[in-house]
Amino acid sequence: MTIERAAVIGAGLMGSGIAAQIANAGVPVLLLDIVPKDATDRSAIAKGAIDKLLKADPAPLMSKAAAKLITPGNIEDDLEKLEDVDWIVEAVIEKLDVKQNLYRKIEPFRKKGSVVSSNTSTIPLHTLVKDEPESLQRDFVITHFFNPPRYMRLLEVLGGPKTRAEALAAVSDFGDRRLGKAIIAAKDTPGFVANRIGVFWMQAAVNAALDLGLTVEEADAIMGRPIGAPKTGIFGLLDLVGLDLQPHVDASMRAALKPDDAYQTVRRDFPLMERMIKDGYTGRKGKGGFYRLQRNGADKVKESIDLKTGEYHVSDKARLESADAAKGGLRALVTHKDKGGQYAWAVLSKLLSYAASLVPEISDDIANVDLAMRTGFNWKRGPFEMIDQLGAAWFVEKLAAEKMVVPPLLKLAAEKGGFYKTENGQLQYLGTDGAYHALKRAEGVLLLADIKRASKPILKNGSASLWDIGDGVACLEFHSKMNAIDPDTLDMVKKSVAHVGKNMKALVVHNEGENFSVGANIGLALFAANIAMWPTIEDLIGQGQAAYKAVKFAPFPVIGAPSGMALGGGCEILLHCAAVIAHAETYMGLVEVGVGLIPGWGGCKELLLRNQPGPKDPKGPMPPVAAAFETISLAKVAKSAAEAKELKLLRPSDGITMNRDRLLFDAKARALELLAAGYKAPEPKELRLPGPTGRTALQLAVDGFRLQGKALPHDVTVSDALAEVLSGGATDFTGVVTEDQVQKLEKKAFMALLRTGPTLARMEHMLTTGKPLRN
Amino acid sequence: MPAYKAPLREIKFILYELLKADSLSNTVPAYAEATPETIDAILEAAGQFCEEELQPLNHSGDEEGCHFENGVVTVPKGFKEAYAKFVESGWPGLPCDPEYGGQGLPKLINFAVEEMICSANLSFGMYPGLSNGNYNAIHAHGDDAQKALYLPKLVSGEWSGTMCLTEPQCGTDLGLCKTRAEANVDGSYKLFGTKIFISAGEHDLTSNIIHLVLARLPDAPAGIRGISLFVCPKFLPTADGEVGPRNKVACGSIEKKMGIKASSTCVINFDGAQAWLVGKPNKGMSAMFTMMNTARLAVGMQGLGIAEAAYQGAVTYAKDRLQMRALAGAKFPEKPADPIIVHPDVRRMLLKMRALTEASRALSYWMGMELDIAAHHPDPERRAAADDLVALLTPIVKAFLTDHGFDAANLGVQVFGGHGYIREWGMEQLVRDARITQIYEGTNGIQALDLVGRKLGTGVGRLARRFFHPVSEFIGVASEKPEMQEFVLPTAKAFAKLQQATAWLAQAGMADPEEAGAAATDYLRLFALTALGYMWCRMAEIALEKKGGSEAAFYEAKLAAARFFMARILPETNSLFTMLTAGKATLMALPAEAF
Hints:
The complex is a heterodimer. Chain A is α/β, with parallel strands linked by helices. Chain A is 44% helix and 14% strand. In chain A, helix 7 (194-212) packs antiparallel against helix 15 (339-357) and helix 18 crosses helix 19 (408-416). By secondary structure, chain B is an alpha+beta fold. Helices cover 57% and strands 11% of the residues of chain B. The chains are: A alpha/beta, B alpha+beta. The interface between A and B is medium-sized, with 18 and 17 residues.
């Protein structure tokens, strides 16, 4: 069966978020909730939820258009609509009777064979369905999403003994391909996989901080990046998810877990937190939490709570040598003598051995557990990957030396030499049977990491590499810091195009970094500008223009396959590709004006071309110029691939892939498709541009903004330079301007701006603070 | 003993013709008083004082040295009287804040005065020099009461000051400081510890000595983040600011040393001495750096002063000393022999001293003027730019000018031959006196690390911009003028090397800090020579304009020195570039035990 229509019942934060993600996938979805008392609009709750979806930040919806796919309703008047629905997600309050009443209510209305799933995080499946009819039990699964559903990749899925295999498969497949989730086959155990370990971690981390007398700043300085967790650490995470949630989670875990489960001994009451909850200090959503922001005149001052006294004080940067030592690996962290090192060991020793004791109870394999922690808690490494980094044998020895329990699976890993190994270029994990098993990828999943493990690059330098991904297709991978584009990257772009032209059939530009590319390495450019190496910088602009031009006019298709940020020069290379298959979570934009520059590697030119009028658009030279000017001068960044299409940074024909793991496969497929259709390189185009009159029109608009105080002095300078380029320089609409001529104008304007003090100040500010300077 | 003549014409050339320092009185309201008439009068008077009072004491001070007996230090004969006159004429307060009795004149003018003092008598200059550093730190970081109590006396010269940083185990690495402070109930502190190498730490010139001391508070974090600055007077001032009871701070001994023998270099013991915190707890390093940055420039001026003195001595001798004949035939057949100045190699030495000294003067005075702009220019952006430039070039001025001071002193000895080596002529004293300037206030190696490790990276090269951009623009414009080609082209070549070396350093040093360390000293010298090339270009530009006027000989000499610099000094940048980009490998290959 396939899922073509869905319904979500319960329009709270999770329910509406799940509905939004279903809509993001282009699938119509009903969003139902109860009828509020004395309501004039009986669907007010669901409608209100959709309004909130449109306003929330970070946005649960990938485009405004997606909201139209969500139909609001209520569970009194709209149950008939369920007869068209293939999948019903229940996301109501965590109360057994409420859920069971709902199941009974919908059972007569739902389509035969449709899947019903609960988003419960605390109630076991067997409890949920024990009194339900066989028909529901066969169609019933748990789909446990993580908050927020658009951004958290984990989806835990499990069925009961009577659940039909097809039902489970349908939901899993939909979750994977359409919703883009990492599907973890969980078991009907408390907290499933991620929360079972995550909740233990949070308890262990809080209590060890209290025992060792760390401040919240110190605890978070260790429990964040140094162990591979998000930088919120532990107390910052509690603030984020809400302190008030914790007592409920704890109570449910205590009740559900066996008395001899290690959780029962690691958990503790936390009187300070109880008091904070009572006083309304429930975290970021409340008056504050372990941290709070206090207004001090116009400034906001970050304060932290003293864990001993409960008083707030101005936050202090934690100074722990161990936090730096962690750069040398996890072992350097946990063996560091300072209290940060002791803290890391106190938490990780318990956490990692606990995780090892839970396989196969919560999951059949360790790789599944690691994936769950990476995608559900955004850890860089799962627990078994952490153990391997410590060294399984070393870890076991240290646990034994401290008379701590060593679970059998951990002992086994120590004897075998770790939880993972690479054999014949293939990643394998240790099974509970004591043998290593290959990590299997689903059909349609192609990972560059796997290719890199199994082969050597065709070409490589410090910033980029070229890989053979089979069937005559190559993959150009960026791997500089933050995938910033530098001369080495550009050199590799040129060499890759040349190599593929001679020896292969098509090229995909893709990498598995957090961000496709944050743009040109402006640190390099700024330093060169500061020491007045103008010819060097001009060469760099020329080098980039030439490399991207080679991409565009290559006799074979070059496919861009971005995920995450694709900004500035990273966006420009995509604009030059024959086609783009973008991960749905792609954030594209030409943001150069933020650092006082304009796109110099053909971005201006390509955006002019993208905005050329279609058959239905108004004619004349000005509309495309004005459109490109708006997008670039306001540094508009698309917050999704869907939005990138609206901004014309992607073409209507470009593809969007929801699941990141499927991106490379899809991009390669598109390349082969274009080849099969007889790919031909595009012809260079000639543009009709307005020249000085157009430039003046744009300048007038900017001067207007300046007078209204909406543009700053240097914005005017940068906009003028941009207007000069986009209007085509000294031309008029009776003449034509070639692509190369626009590029020349780009270079000239870029160099002129780079010589201005305010541009250099913007670049410096961005590099040193990470924030734009408004000057 | 070489005679010393204050080089007022040279100084005025830099001040008025190159830097247009007379414009300060118009553009910077705080310096409205610094008109050319005032400046000229000050320079004349300072020159006269240095020639007549300080220089005659230089040799005798060196011969006699300081005396130490029972914790009491007495300075050599004549120093007390000279100091009294120095104070009476108001010299200590020249660049100081009028609010505390200073004259509020530009630091630039004080730089010129300092240069002359250092040429005449480096040891003497130490005493007011330290007081001025002390004044700067209290002025920047002290509270109102501390300022009111100490600054007027320091400005008048009635009291003097010190900077107590070094301890036996703690030299360059101030994080190792052990001197500790214990809180008294009244908010003051007791200091315990021993400081060494304390210049002007004890003497009989002033009625009180104000020590600024780095020490640790009881709960201070380890290392450099746990250092605080304290003010600790030798005599506890009374409520009305007069000298009161003796504090528990005493001089344990004075060092026997290579040079600056008339400057007392003391071991100072703090045995529960009462002291007061200056600035914030544990922020002593930043307070100290305020003082150190100006002090580093002042040490650069010491190098310049020595170089000028050595040059003057050597020129006089080279003109007087008759030996041999010129290589191409007698130049003064009426004399028994030609003066040695006829010889190319003697000229090589003299011109090297002169070309580097004049350009060094230009560079360092330029920094003096930028310091004034940074302090008081009405435009905040101009202030920030000046601050950046001074920060960038301070290590260069300190290291290069002191290296040059020492080199010039050695060349001076060489010109004198055997007479340079004996004490009577005073040339060897210059060598010995100069030697310390390359060491204190951060060794020249540390200056080079400061340049490559700290200054270049600041603001992703923002500090560098303040130098590279004006030079790049100057080269662009000046290379259009045919008569400037002979100066601009070699400078442009050196500048390109400097750019390349800087880019290389940024990349190699980022990847491996040892690469930056290995390149640092050569890079600093490459930078300095390029900067001096730029100075010579600008000086030559002026000389070309004015050589047809009444002072033709003066400007022709400038052009001659500029040509010598371009032809026979600046090419060193090529070898420096080759050496520094050779990388660290040959430095690091040999294991420590093989040395």
